[in-house]
Write a sequence for this structure.
């Protein structure tokens, strides 16, 4: 967390640091809006961004459940959003005060060994640190390290709200689900979980013209959204046996790609039952407890299992795709809140079955 050293004024004592409002994780199940010192430049590559819009991620809910031990109590949450640069460090060359920017959920230096491999999520001085190991975007201001390689210019006259989805959910779906899952023309795809990341995977997969996309969930409202946005068939696994239904739809073969978009043991095991010989299981879900891998059934089936934290290497491409209208991530947005309503926003997002929430927009203006 950034700290501010008090500055002395002309013999009259100490000047208190500027204060901002922030959403703070207080330990398992505890959250609050607090006054916090406004962040300052710490390293030459930093930028201070005044937040304009942010959102809540399923990973934030996992933090509140205690599933992410790297995030300590007292942390300002959030790793998504757009804003206006207020100040930059002396080493920042690509951005200037007043620039309108997209904040990536992944911070990358661009020069370490992992970044040179395009594996920005494992940057040795970055990765997923915002709202995890350093203070994040659910505050009026945020310090973004490695600004030159972790921020993106927002094109003039671009619609803001859809671009918030480019901070995390859409690149995650595209990279971890569609690309690693080897979705291709004519292939069959099952997405287990029709929450925000599952629906984003559905949207991104259609860029590759798969032959069929099957969505599985226990929420009829989310399945209806999936059907409206292009799913070939939807299955409520609380009402009908999903494995048997998929096998019937694929003549007993299973699907070429299964995307795990929930993060619980039962859905991970379901994926192993759904995948066809030679197919791919692409895990996206954040898993907070162990899940069984049934090698006694999979060892001879030429199955690939992939895991990945999004690297956001696709963000520039996806921005062009969104701007061209090929993908409309505004379909993910269901609710809007002001920042002083963020506790209500968390309640809405955390009880999606009741509120029919997918992604919420939190506005600072």
């Amino acid at each position: 967390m950034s700290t501010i050293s008090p500055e002395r004024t002309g013999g009259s004592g100490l000047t208190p640091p500027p204060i901002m409002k922030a959403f703070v994780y207080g330990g398992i199940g505890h959250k609050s809006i607090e006054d916090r010192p406004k962040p300052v430049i710490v390293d030459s590559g930093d930028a201070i961004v005044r937040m304009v819009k942010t959102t809540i991620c399923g990973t934030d809910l996992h933090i509140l459940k205690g599933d992410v031990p790297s995030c300590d109590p007292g942390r300002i949450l959030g790793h998504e959003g757009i804003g206006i640069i207020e100040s930059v460090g002396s080493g920042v060359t690509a951005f200037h005060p007043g620039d309108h920017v997209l904040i990536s959920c992944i911070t990358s230096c661009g020069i370490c060994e992992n970044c040179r491999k395009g594996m920005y999520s494992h940057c040795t001085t970055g990765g997923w640190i915002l709202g995890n190991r350093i203070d994040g975007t659910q505050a009026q201001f945020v310090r973004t390290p490695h600004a030159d390689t972790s921020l993106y210019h927002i094109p003039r006259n671009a619609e803001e709200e859809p671009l918030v989805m480019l901070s995390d959910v859409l690149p995650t779906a595209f990279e971890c689900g569609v690309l690693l899952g080897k979705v291709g023309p004519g292939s069959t795809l099952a997405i287990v979980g029709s929450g925000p990341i599952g629906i984003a995977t559905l949207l991104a997969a259609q860029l590759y013209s798969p032959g069929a996309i099957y969505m599985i969930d226990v929420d009829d409202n989310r399945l209806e959204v999936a059907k409206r946005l292009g799913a070939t068939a939807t299955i409520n696994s609380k009402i009908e046996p999903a494995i048997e239904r998929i096998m019937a739809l694929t003549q007993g073969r299973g699907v070429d790609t299964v995307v795990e978009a929930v993060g619980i043991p039962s859905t991970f095991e379901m994926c192993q039952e759904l995948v066809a010989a030679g197919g791919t299981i692409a895990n996206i879900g954040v898993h907070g407890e162990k899940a069984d891998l049934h090698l006694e059934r999979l060892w001879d089936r030429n199955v690939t299992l992939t895991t990945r934290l999004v690297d956001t290497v696709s963000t520039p491409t996806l921005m062009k795709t969104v701007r061209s209208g090929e993908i409309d991530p505004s379909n993910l947005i269901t609710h809007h809140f002001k920042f002083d309503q963020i506790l209500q926003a968390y309640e809405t997002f955390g009880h999606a079955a009741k509120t029919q929430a997918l992604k919420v927009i939190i506005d600072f203006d």
Notes: Residues 1-12 have pLDDT under 50 and may be disordered. Residues 171-307 form a domain with the Rossmann fold fold (CATH 3.40.50.720). The first strand starts at residue 7 and ends at 9.
